[in-house]
Amino acid sequence: MNFELPSDLQSYLGRLDTFIHDKILPLQHRNDNNRFFDHRRESSRTQWDNQGLPTPEWEDLLRQARKLADDAGFYRFPFPKEFGGAGSDSQNLYMCAIRYHLASNPVYGGGVGLANDLQNEHSVVGNNPIIIMLHHYGTPEQQKKFIPASIRGEFRATFGLTEIHHGSDATHMDTTAKSVTLPSGEPGYEINGNKKWQTGMHSATHCLVFARTSGQAGSPRGITAFIVPRETPGVEVASYEWTLNMPTDHATVLFENVRVPASAVLGPVDNGLAIAQTFTHENRIRQASSSCGAARYCIDRSVEYAKRRTVFGKPLSSNQAIQWPLVELATQAEMLRLLILRTAVEMDQVTAQCKASGKAPWIAIEKQLGHKIGMCNYYANRLATESADRAIQIHGGVGYSRHHPFEHIWRHFRRYRITEGSEEVQIRKVAAYLFGYKTTGEEGGKQATEQEMKKSEAKL
Question: Where does the Acyl-CoA oxidase/dehydrogenase middle domain lie (predicted)?
Answer without folding.
Answer: 159-258
